[in-house]
Amino acid sequence: MKFLKIPAATITRLSIYSRALEELADGQVSVVSSKKLAELCGVNPAQIRKDLAYFGQFGVRGVGYYVKELLFDIKKILGLNKEWRLAIVGMGNLGCALVAHENFEKQGYSFVAAFDADPMKIGHRLASGLEIHSITHLEEICRETGAEIGVICTPPERAQEVANRMLSIPLKGILNFAPVQLQVPECPACKVENVDFTVKLDNLAYHLTAG
Amino acid sequence: MKFLKIPAATITRLSIYSRALEELADGQVSVVSSKKLAELCGVNPAQIRKDLAYFGQFGVRGVGYYVKELLFDIKKILGLNKEWRLAIVGMGNLGCALVAHENFEKQGYSFVAAFDADPMKIGHRLASGLEIHSITHLEEICRETGAEIGVICTPPERAQEVANRMLSIPLKGILNFAPVQLQVPECPACKVENVDFTVKLDNLAYHLTAG
Questions:
Q1: A19 interface with B at CB cutoff 8 Å
Q2: Which of B93, B191, B195 has its CB closest to that of A97?
């Protein structure tokens, strides 16, 4: 399946639509108007129609969207109709919080391997049953477990080295929580997404100041 | 100071520029070319010039940017030339990870109050010295401590209720980590930013599938 060049913001919104549709499906709602769906997602109805139009024809005029059908289609568009296998490095507070976060599993993301450099943590088993391995075995265990996406929760000064090793395995994607901009080659084979909490806070601070 | 309507992506990039400039300043670098700064931030030099042009004239032709000067100016633009006081609700794994995260303090964000509903946690003191208070005292303690921004780390089903209470205090902004789209009135007095880890993962999954 080959797509047009889709705006990144559209992909982000599809993801938000899928969350809302999941909640509706959980609540046994079978049909939703575009107005109601838009309200739940904090956008306007025209935006939803525009975003979906990139991928085909969805919904029924005068009726709205069939919840389960649209959810299925959006998940397929996003590539979420399969399980994604994650390897996480850095089992401090944040790493443990992520592994315990129920939403990953719910969305089809499975942590299949966890790593740390601290001898006190290595060998320890998390509540989920996942064992913390030494970072020295990163390549080997990622291959064994079929990890596809690497999650980096290390201190900032270790993140680039870990990313380099993940790229060399190669993992297909990296989700980086370390507060540092990773230097990665421009290659479609590995995509990096940065999650920086303080960047979001800066957005808030700007709006509270300039608003 | 009144600004033009600035694209949200520009604000996000300013925040990323400030991280890079901070690292340069820490490393005693006093001048940086726009090419080098762009490289560090994963953008092209024209993008930096374009983003900064919204706010005035920066940098010296043929020289580049004075690191400390530009950092100061960007922080001022973002409203980071002051301390922002944060109140956090939900002291599970994630809440504790955030309070312990050194980057907040470094960027001028201070956690001044922490809350939970679990009697086992209330009264407990975090490594930072912050005490966990009962959520029943949210309004009172937020006022006492001068909290300006609320951080929500509760389970999704509790997030809306907490947000409503924060809005009624009123706090000026909310950073929401709960995986749910908050319903908030469209008012410039309170701005909400959502941080959803799995939305970032969905972005990755999409690119790895459609790429």
A1: yes
A2: B93
How many whole angstroms separate alpha carbon B44 and alpha carbon B34? Answer: 9
Q: CA B105, CA A6: separation in Å to the nearest integer?
A: 37
Sequence spans of domains, chain A: 8-78, 84-199
Q: What pLDDT, in 10s, does the model give residues B115-138?
A: 999 999 999 999 889 999 999 999
Instruction: Among A16, A78, A203, select the one facing B205 at the smallest CB separation.
Output: A78
Report yes or no: B208 and A79 within 8 Å, Cβ to Cβ: yes
Q: Does B200 touch chain A (CB under 8 A)?
A: yes
| Chain A neighbors of B97, CB-CB under 8 A | 92-94, 96-97
Task: Check whether A38 has a pLDDT greater than 70.
Answer: yes
ipTM of model over 0.95 = no
Establish whether domains B8-78 and B84-199 are of one fold: no
Which architecture does CATH list for A8-78? Orthogonal Bundle (1.10)
Burial of residue B73 (CB within 10 Å: 0-12, 13-18, 19+) is: buried
pLDDT attached to residue B108: 87
Q: Cβ contact (<8 Å) for B204 and A149? A: yes
For the domain A84-199, what is the CATH superfamily, name and number?
NAD(P)-binding Rossmann-like Domain (3.40.50.720)
Q: Is B87 on the interface with A (CB under 8 A)?
A: no
**Is A76 an 8 Å CB contact of chain B?**
no
DSSP code for A108: T
Rounded average pLDDT over B171-191: 83
From chain B, the residues in CB contact with A200 under 8 A are 175, 193, 195
pTM here? Answer: 0.79
Tell me if chain B has a CB within 8 Å of the CB of A78.
yes
CB pairs under 8 A between A and B: 196
